[in-house]
Design goal:
The chain is built from 4 helices and no strands. By secondary structure, it is mostly helical. The protein starts with a helix and ends in a 5-residue tail after the last helix. It is a multi-pass membrane protein.
């Protein structure tokens, strides 16, 4: 991979969607709640929301290497956040946490 392509690739992975930071927090909170329901966690609502916000950021970052996330809207961001939060909750279960 040449340096220009690598720079463009990394720049695209750090680009926010049209939702913005406040949108990420709101969508992440909703995604955390939904992921907690899907995974049937015992962490509690507040922890599920925090995991959702973190999952939204991680999921969006990782997915940006595969697709152009900057053109995604609310629904795409919500899907990505739910996916990221579910994966994060699953990893917490693997780590031995009682979820």
């Amino acid at each position: 991979m040449d340096p220009v392509a690598a720079t463009e690739f990394l720049a695209r992975s750090t680009t926010l969607t049209s939702v913005g930071w406040i949108g990420y927090i709101i969508i992440g909170a909703i995604a955390g709640w939904i992921a907690g329901l899907i995974m049937k966690t015992k962490f509690g609502l507040l922890t599920d929301i925090v995991v959702g916000v973190v999952g939204a950021l991680i999921g969006g970052f990782l997915l940006s290497f595969v697709v152009d996330t900057a053109s995604g809207g609310w629904w795409f961001t919500l899907f990505t956040a739910i996916l990221g939060a579910v994966i994060l909750l699953w990893l917490l279960r693997l780590a031995g946490r009682d979820a």
